[in-house]
């Protein structure tokens, strides 16, 4: 399986490797190579004792409204509001390009 590793170093700090898909998968090391080796070991330690599954729960979350206001049937009604916006894809691509350039020193 392939994991995305965020590998960073700030001036005068150790290398830090993080795998956001795995809870508590963070390591620090004095060198880049050591950080990569340690994160691989950490990933193996986590996944060797982890089961990934999806549960279907028949209950729905309680809907709570503010006092004096009607409760919204979907408290997160805004979620996905921009999914059809044609500009956002290129905007996020540009954000990632600039982030990668900064991380890689380019």
Would you summarize the structure shown here?
This protein has helices spanning 32-47, 86-104; strands spanning 6-8, 15-18, 26-29. The protein is of the alpha+beta class.
Report on the structure:
- This protein has 106 residues and is an alpha+beta fold.
- It has a domain at 1-50.
- Helix content is 33%, strand content 10%.
- The protein is built from two helices and three strands, in the order βββαα.
- A three-stranded antiparallel beta sheet has the order 1-2-3, covered by helices on one side.
- A hairpin with a 6-residue loop joins strand 1 (6-8) and strand 2.
- The model has no long low-confidence stretch (mean pLDDT 83).
Figure out the total of helices: 2
Strand content: 5-15%
Question: How many beta-strand elements?
Answer: 3
Q: For the largest beta sheet, what order do the strands appear in spatially?
A: 1-2-3
Question: Whole-number radius of gyration?
Answer: 20 Å
Structural class: alpha+beta
The portion of residues assigned to helices is 25-40%
Largest sheet: 3 strands, antiparallel
């Amino acid at each position: 399986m392939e994991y995305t590793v965020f590998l960073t170093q700030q001036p005068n700090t150790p290398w830090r490797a993080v795998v956001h898909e795995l809870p508590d998968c963070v390591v620090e090391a004095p060198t880049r190579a050591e950080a990569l080796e340690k994160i691989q070991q950490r990933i193996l330690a986590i996944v060797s004792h982890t089961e990934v599954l999806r549960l279907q729960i028949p209950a729905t979350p309680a809907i709570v409204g503010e006092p004096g206001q009607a409760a919204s049937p979907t408290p997160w009604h805004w979620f996905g509001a921009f999914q059809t916006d044609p500009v956002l894809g290129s905007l996020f691509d540009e954000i990632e390009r600039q982030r990668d350039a900064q991380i890689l020193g380019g």
